[in-house]
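Backbone shape codes:
***
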Amino acid sequence: MSDEGNRPDGATPQGDLFGAGALPPTSARIVRLGGEIAGAPPERPDYLHSVLCQVGLPRRRVEGTTFERTNGNASLLIEAGKLWNGRDWVPQPLPYGTRPRLALVHLSSEAVRTKSPTVEVGHSVREFLLRLGISTGGEEYANFGRQMRALAACRMSLGIGLETLEAKPIKRFAAWVDGSPHQRALRPGVIELTPEFYASLAESAVPLDARALGALKHSALALDVYSWLAHRLHRIRGRAGTKVSWANLRAQFGQEYRDPKDFKREMAKALRAVMAVYPDARVEQVAGGLVLMPSRSPVPKTVVQLGARRA
């Protein structure tokens, strides 16, 4: 995971940050999948938009109807929307947490693989949840439905450099109208991505290891950190790496934390889990922050190219 011989001046061993304390209660799953990942590359990659790898959705419920997150020259603005229920336009909250993140990865991956913005999502919610590795119990079903409606209704703007892209992700939401997680609909549910989001995704999709996402599905912060490192580390040049201060990390990942100490503690937990399922990641703790070292992508180019040929 780390290369102590190339550690920058002032850096401390990874164990000081990533080894202190235990992995979360889901550690058995993380360790098992981490072993699989270390032993063999993925059969095929999943994908997520590069901007969403740098600035994630809200992790907790947000009061109000707008949310912004910025990292350098990449920024995300989300606005809550409304959905038609056959009688009225019903206001939806902002999407948050792990479920819309996993759903966006799934939808983006299928769109990239099939080279189509229209994604069939199964005959029932249960079928879709099983694809994502999520429990199909009643409470989970209800929560997932709320998050999917919020995701389908929201408006999304992506800031990339000096460019603003209006990229509402979902154009058409026609899925699971039966209202039951188990009852099969007559036709498979369909979600269609907007042309703007799909075109931008086709140019800026970041390959991810589905096994790592499955290991981290308990934590929105861990999913965000993994996606960020998957996008960032293999782009770093120079043996000295790139330093990121705790202040910058908190601005990028820690809007939900009032106390910097709380954020640093939770970020350390997320990093420990991420490093377990991204064994090629080289991240060092230094005074005042972290140093990101040049690292191999979690998905080898040969796997990405093979997946493209199969599609």
Summary: The CA atoms of residues 51 and 132 lie 22 Å apart. The mean pLDDT is 83.
